[in-house]
Every structure is written in structure tokens, then in C-alpha cells.
Amino acid sequence: MALAHTITPVVLSGGMGTRLWPASRRLQPKQLLPLVDDRSMIQATIDRVHGVMSEGVDPIIVTNVDHADAIQRELIRAGYSETRLILEPVGRNTAPAVAVAALEVIERGADDLMLVLPADHTITDESAFADALEAAAEVAAVGYLVTFGISPSGPETGYGYIRSGEPITDSASRLVEFKEKPDVDTATSYVASGDYLWNSGMFMFKASRYLEELEIHAPDIARASREAFQTATRVGLKISLGEEAFTNCPADSIDYAVMEHTNRAAVVPTDPGWNDVGSWSSLWEISERSPEGNVISGDVATVNVTNSYVRGSNRLVAAVGVDNTIIVDTPDALLVANMDAAQDVNAIVAQLKEAARPEYETDGTVHRPWGSFRTIDKGPGYRVLHLWLDPGGKTSMKRHEHRSEHWLVVRGVARITTDEATRLVPTRESVYIPPGEVHRLENPGDEVLEVIEVDVGSYVGEDDIKRFMDAYGRAERQG
User: Fold this and answer.
1) Continuous H helices in 320-463
2) How is the chain split among helix, strand and coil, in percent rounded to 5?
3) How far apart are CA 382 and CA 463, in angstroms?
4) Residue 52 has pLDDT above 80, yes or no
5) Higher-scoring residue by pLDDT: 243, 74
């Protein structure tokens, strides 16, 4: 699907997805999870628009600095190794995020059309989506700021609505009004009128036009975004925005900051099988269901269960005699909720955040540049870890004063470097690392390396570590 206009996809990946807890956490948000198929949602988003990108044009992802390494690893695995990442020190909603992306588009000497997409939506009819992109490009190229309105399938109260006005072309109209999430009666009247569409949160416009409108309608955001971009540091494909300027930037959405005020707003209606996958009930709605109305994932056993969503992880989940229920099991937390209360899961997340509970941050998986690990068991003087090393991943050269390590390779072949030598250790073999010995673990293969690590000593905390300098005299930080 190649369009006549040069388009730069801009993927916004800054949210946490609180209503999809406990699968989605602050440090492992829903866009990095394979919730709909075997791809992460961010990969599926880029796959969807890969065909509209002109040769030499790669997507831009705007995300939080905490997610940078995980997203970059995901992109490399998916074959998008040239994707640029703009890293926000703090979240400031969509208007500033799109502003810095527009500045990056112009910085490289172009004024492309920008296709702004959330990283966590699904679209099932990609042909209809392609037609909508073509229609939007036609009016965006002449200076309109286009949003995509979804033809409503019913009086949904979880979405905002937009009202379209007089036509601009056969496929686009002027955008007249935004409406917040309505109650059921109001939503029913919107759908009955035929004038309202669901607000998808997807946009298309020229980079320069967006910045012009932002300067007019939200000059504080425009000024702070420009300063944050100008004071950014660049390392490879990562652009880290200036922290002080971006932290001081007002937080606002594109809708409130620009689209509700500009006289050049347009809407393209479309029905591409869109869903924002904002809750477990919305995931249940778009998934294939059994004759009993259930969506089952993982190791699950059910008896007399109907109209429910049951998701297991690494242990058996059994459900008996429940209806209209959400059950989601993860290594460290279990959610049980009525399907009708799916929107209220974020209230649990707010409690966890307030109490500074670790379950708010992560499911216990710790991500590193080389891969990730999870604590399986721990007690006085010991802990057991499960390590996953990405292809080419390697830890820093380091040593521990207070503990020994025992590595058992359970999948793949490890390259282990110690004071004495470098050796390859195949599956089912192990290596003992005594306290004080310098060592490194590395994955020389093309598949993920899995290792079980047993730490034993008087102290087994993560801060019992001394790293050594690399060839350039820098302290290695791989972990």
C-alpha cells in the first residue's frame, strides 16, 4: 500500500495501560505485550503501516525513557532496527509528544505528512484502513489536520465522540465538535443521529502545519517542546529530550491543545475493525470465543464457565461455575473481576501506586540491555534466578564479594568468560563462579539463551557488584 505522499509514522508509546493490570505494569506496559496475537502490540502497529513508508523513511517512536531499552529490543527482534526513539523524561500527554516528533521530521530536512498512531490499538480490516489513509493524505497535504473517526457499532460509553460537518472531499469532512465519554442515554442519541463517530486518537497532518497550529493555540507547549528538542542528547537512534524543559512543559492532548481550536480540523470516517484494547472486556470482545462465550489463554481448566476471560501464565488456573468474569493470573498477582467492572481495574493500580507496591512497577521481571531475569525463589543467604539473554547479549565484566554463582544452561549455548579463560557451555552443563572471580555471561547464538542462576552467600543483593572498565575506559553498565 504505497501512497503518493511521503508519510512518516509516529507511534506514541507512553502509556501504561492500567486497566490491563496485572499483565500491564509501569515498566512493562501493554504495548510491549502479545495480547492479541503472538506479536507485541507495538510491532503489530508498525507492521500495519510498513507499506505506507517511503524508501528511506523509518518510523519514529515517542516513549518514556524507562521503556527505551525494552522497546529497542522489541524493534530489533521485529526487524525495525533503524527506528528512531524520542525519549521523554516524564509523560506530558500527546500534544508535546507529537510536537517533538514533528521537530525531528523537519530536522532531517523534510516536511512529511505525519501519521500519528497509539501503539496499543488493533485494526482487523487493513484494506479499509488503507483507504482511510489515502483519503486523509489527500486533505492533509493541503493543510488540514485530520483525525480518523470510527463508525460506531453501538452506544459505547468508553470512547469520546466527534461530530462531522460539511464535506471537504467525498471521503473527508470538517470536524465540528468533540464530546467527552458520554453516559448510555447520550451515547445512544449520538449513534442514532448518524452525525457522530468514535474518536480514535489517530491523526494525519504535515509536520509544519501541526507546529504552526500549536504555536497559535498552545504557545507554552510549543515553546517548551522546542526547547526540550533543542537541548536533547543523541546516542545512536535514541533522542533524549532535555529534562528540565520537558518537565516544565504543560501536559495536554492533541484534541484539547489543537484540534478543538483550529479551523482546519478534518475527519475521515472509517470502519477498519478498530479497538483501543483499553480493558480486559475490550480484549474479550475482539477475541475468538468458545461456544460458551469464553476466551481462554494459557494453562486453564474450566467447569460451567460462561462469557468469561481467563488467562493463565506459568501455573494451572482452574475456574468453576462463574459467568461474566475476568480472571488474569501472573507470576506475582491474580486479578478476579466482574466483566462489567473492567474499567475500574485502574482503581486497583492507583492503590498499588499509592502504597508503593512492587506489583505496580513490574511482575518481577527485571529488564537489562542484554535481556531479562526473574527471581524464582529466595531466602536467607540464597536466591534462584531465571535469566534470558537475547542473541548477542552479554553482561558486564564484574565480580561479587559476598556470593558465589552457579550457572546451569537450560537452553542454548553460553559463552562464559572468567579470570582463567573463555569457554562455551552447552545445554545441561553448568559453571561455578566463586566469590571474587571476574566473570561475564554471553549469548553467542541466534536464539534466546536461558540460564538458571543460583546465588549463595552472606549477602545476595543486586548491589554486591563491582564492574570493570571497557576498552574505552568506561564503566560497563550491562548489568
Assistant:
1) 345-354, 358-361
2) 30, 35, 40
3) 15
4) no
5) 243
How far CA 89 is from CA of 253, 349, 433, in Å, comes to 17, 22, 38
Can you list the positions of beta strands (E) in 207-342?
233-235, 238-240, 265-270, 274-275, 295-297, 300-303, 309-311, 317-320, 325-329, 334-338
Amino acid at 313: S
- Mean of the pLDDT values across residues 340-347? 94
pTM for the full predicted model: 0.85
Residue type, 116: V
- Top-confidence residue, 48 or 474: 48
What single string gives the DSSP state of each residue in 221-258? HHHHHHHHHHT-EEETTEEE--HHHHHTSPP--HIIII
Report which DSSP code applies to 259.
Answer: I
Per the structure block, which three cell numbers stand in for 108? 532531517
- Which positions ≥6 away from 473 have C-beta within 8 Å? none
Q: How many CA atoms lie within 13 A of 254 on its CB side?
A: 23
How far is it, in rounded angstroms, from Cα 431 to Cα 162? Answer: 62
Contacts of 416 (CB under 8 A, 6+ apart): 407, 422, 423, 424, 425, 431, 439, 440, 441, 442
Nearest to 194 by CA among 269, 274, 275: 269
Phi and psi torsions of 428, nearest 5°: 80, 0
Whether the per-residue pLDDT at 364 is higher than 60: the answer is: yes
pLDDT digits (tens, 9 = 90+) for 215-255: 999 999 999 999 999 999 999 999 999 999 999 999 999 99
Band (pLDDT 50/70/90 cuts) for residue 72 is: confident
